[in-house]
Amino acid sequence: MNNQKTKAGYEYLLAYKLCVPIYDLTVEFVEKNISRFSRTGDQMIQAARSGMQNIAEGNKQQGMKGYIKLSGVARGSLEELLKDYHAFARQNKIEILFKEKAYREIREIGEIWGIIKKYPALPDQPNFPNLPNDKKVAVNLMITLINQANYLIDRLIASLKDKHMKVGGLTEELYRKRVEHQSKRIHD
Question: Is residue 179 part of a domain?
Answer without folding.
Answer: yes
